[in-house]
Amino acid sequence: MNIRDELIENLSHDLEPVSPVSNINLLAVVWVLFSAAYVVAIIHLVGPVRPGALSQLVSEPRFLFESLLGVAAIIWVSVAAFRAGIPASLSKMFATVGLVLMILWLAQYVIGLFDPALEASTLGKRGHCYFETMVYSLPPILIALFLVRRLYPLHFVRTSMSLSLAAGMIPALYMQLACMYKPLHILGFHILPGLLMVLVGAAIAALWRGERQ
């Protein structure tokens, strides 16, 4: 036996079969559904949603459109983020589509500053919606980081930022029903805290990664 063969045999001696990674898209969708159910439940426990908000989804097509666009953006970004946990599973095109959907959704509220989907009103205002958005998104972020960390993300901090974006936008989106509908308030007290969770998730991932080294 030559040196090369002996080296290969020594390196492979203790190797064990590795089970294949489960369907990553399904894992992402399950995480989104679980996170959304948790966020909706805790928001309702803390306080009621805006009176008439659910009926407005039926009676106001533009409000329904921007809400569905938010759902699509969150799901797409979530799947892209989980795919990033497996090398070569995320294409640049797939990631770009998610980013475009997210921008298009958030742009609805910028447009709403001049032409809102609903009549601007303080009806249903929650006193701590800013902090609620941040606090409610933290458990989904931690769960997502735990799941992705068990895969093989080549860029863990960058992946965590995408996961945190999706997680932060879940309560931000539902606050459009739970809190008052006023585009300036939405951007400052729902969307902004959701976006700030991207930095929180990146910090957690950086600390977590440092512990592994």
Please work out how many helical segments DSSP would assign.
Answer: 8
The counted number of beta strands is 0
Strand content: under 5%
Shape: globular
Question: What structural category characterises the helix and strand content?
Answer: mainly alpha
Uncertain parts: none
Largest sheet: none
Give the helix level as a range of percent.
over 70%
Summarize the helix and strand pattern as letters. Answer: HHHHHHHH
Radius of gyration: 21 Å
User: What oligomeric state do these chains adopt?
Assistant: single chain
Element layout with pairings:
Layout: H1 3-12, H2 24-46, H3 53-59, H4 61-83, H5 92-112, H6 129-149, H7 156-178, H8 183-212
Helix pairs in contact: 2-4, 2-6, 2-7, 3-4, 4-5, 4-7, 5-8, 6-7, 6-8, 7-8
Explained architecture:
- Helix content is 74%, strand content 0%.
- It is mostly helical and 213 residues long.
- The protein has one domain (23-118, 131-212).
Considering the chains and any ligands shown, give keywords for the structure.
mainly alpha, globular, 213 residues
Quick overview of this protein structure:
By secondary structure, the protein is mainly α.
